[in-house]
Design a protein that fits this description.
There is one protein chain. This protein is of the alpha+beta class. It has two domains: 7-90, Elongation Factor Tu (Ef-tu), domain 3; 95-233, Threonyl-trna Synthetase, Chain A, domain 2 (Threonyl-tRNA Synthetase, Chain A, domain 2), CATH 3.30.980.10. Helices cover 18% and strands 37% of the residues. The radius of gyration is 19 Å and the shape is globular.
Length: 235
């Protein structure tokens, strides 16, 4: 399956062909739909058939392996047969918010020298949990630093390294318990130029200038050492 979103996070639509249908689960030969993973929700949207009928996709999940994407259709949908051409279109407004949020969480991680213990990306609110026993910044400090990074407009881009290269650079992995998937020979990294580099398979903005107005809404104590940093979009 060709993962269009992996090479172009700004692609909103693509033409595809149905390769398999199992109940309300549809596979295509290529897709712009991102599947749930790495704390980021799966995309929603529509698959439009040649006769104009639109099938609502209410979720996108991973199938049997990392590059197997399953589009979950709304219950009661009239499903297409394998071989049917479709126009796949994501809910762009929701996706773009996820892209902004996910990149913002990477920046929080870059600004705070602490390991990640958890994260969740949402369209309206996101959070990152960190092993940060003695916070040395307030939410206002972090918000101001984010604003400065947005103004500086750093390029954001994916790159790939081999499994062996990642094993030789364990400091790239910032998560305490969840490790990036290996075994396929290569691992995708997300680089925010001059600021951060770590494994990530999610969708992101192409530069920090596209983040818009973002604020840290709170820092919560979630354990002896764990702190939860919540982020919201202001525009």
């Amino acid at each position: 399956m060709e993962l269009v979103f992996r090479d172009d996070a700004y692609a909103r639509t693509c033409q595809a062909t149905v390769s398999d249908v199992d109940g309300n689960r549809i596979r295509l030969d290529r897709t712009v739909f991102y599947p749930t993973g790495g704390g980021q929700p799966g995309d929603t949207g529509f698959l439009t058939l040649p006769d104009g009928v639109a099938i609502e996709i209410v979720d996108t999940v991973k199938g049997d392996h990392p590059e197997d994407v399953v589009h979950v259709a709304a219950e009661g949908s009239a499903l297409p047969a394998p071989g049917t051409p479709v126009d796949a279109e994501i809910n762009w407004e929701r996706r773009h918010k996820h892209m902004r949020m996910h990149t913002a969480l990477h920046l929080i991680c870059a600004l705070i020298d602490a390991e990640i213990t958890g994260a969740s990306v949402g369209a309206e609110k996101s959070r990152i949990d960190l092993n940060w026993p003695e916070p040395d910044m307030t939410k206002d400090d972090l918000t101001a630093r984010l604003a400065a990074i947005v103004a500086e407009d750093h390029p954001v881009r994916p790159r790939w390294i081999t499994d062996e290269e990642l094993a030789a650079q364990p400091d790239l992995v910032r998560t305490m318990s969840v490790k990036p998937p290996t075994g396929m020979g290569h691992v995708r990294l997300l680089e925010i130029e001059g600021l951060d580099l770590q494994p990530c398979g999610g969708t992101h903005v192409s530069s920090t200038g596209d983040l818009g107005q973002i604020a840290v809404s709170k820092i919560e104590n979630k354990g002896k050492q764990n702190r939860r940093v919540s982020v919201v979009l202001l525009d």
